[in-house]
Design goal:
Alpha-D-Glucose-1,6-Bisphosphate, Chain A, domain 4
């Protein structure tokens, strides 16, 4: 069963090339995301590249791995979180004033049951955690916007 599509977007007053440079440097994900504490890319940015990640929520820390699924320079970056099967993507489109970025969490095949059990046991339930994820997306995009628009 598909999980709900989680999504946030922001308009940034900066060229697509500048925004892409920020988003495609996965080492910087910890600067943007309130949940990601560390993301290490194992090889060049291309489909199939794996990452090792450390996430945090309050006092809980957990490691994950992900696999880059799509790289279209200055248009789209997507990766699949291997533990739960979700795909996270950043899509960039030029606007009259700069760049629109849409961050999405897709789970067309649903989130793996073991992940939902963990979220229910440790994070207060799936619905609450998904609201937190959307809040985190909005926070992530706000930080990327601030970085892209400065200077």
């Amino acid at each position: 069963m598909a999980a709900p599509l989680l999504q946030a977007q922001v308009d940034i007053n900066a060229p697509v090339s500048k925004v892409w440079a920020l988003i495609s440097d996965l080492r910087r994900m910890r600067q943007w995301s309130p949940q990601c504490r560390w993301m290490m890319q194992l090889g060049p940015l291309r489909p199939g590249t794996r990452t090792v990640n450390l996430n945090r929520r309050k006092y809980l820390f957990w490691p994950t791995t992900s696999t880059v699924t799509e790289v279209i320079p200055e248009k789209k970056l997507a990766f699949k979180v291997n533990a739960n099967g979700t795909i996270w993507s950043y899509e960039l489109e030029p606007t009259d004033r700069g760049t629109r970025v849409i961050e999405t969490r897709h789970a067309e095949n649903g989130v793996k049951p073991v992940s939902n059990m963990t979220v229910n046991a440790l994070f207060g339930g799936v619905e609450k955690f998904e609201r937190e994820l959307v809040d985190g997306m909005n926070a992530t995009l706000a930080k990327i916007k601030a970085a892209a628009e400065q200077g």
